[in-house]
Write a structure and sequence with these properties.
Layout: E1 2-3, E2 9-15, E3 18-26, E4 33-39, H1 49-70, E5 78-84, E6 94-100, E7 106-111, E8 117-122
Amino acid sequence: MIDDPEGNPVRLHKAGVLRWGAVSQTFAHGAKAICILIDHDGTNASGTWRDELSELERRWPELREALDEVLPGGMSAATLQLIDLRSHIRPGRAVLDFKTTHDEFAWFVRLGGDYTIEIAGPKD
């Protein structure tokens, strides 16, 4: 584990040649810290993840309305667990992982470059 330039702990992960970091941070919608996956080469994190997260927080109220329509039971039955901001999901913007109380599945939502929902469904 290392610290980012702002002193936040970053847990490093590696799978083959892929490397990334995980940061625990409070997101705009609630007081609970969630996991945020970011590009990280083992020494430095991509500088754009904070900008991406800020924009996602800014757009959260309108996105929440759209999520109400695609998640089983709506947002009242879902808890955001993870935000994936790693570059391998491009041209998409982010992947959001939710735990739902409506059924036994965890759900994912992939956001496009304009922060609209591209696809949503149960995780395998």
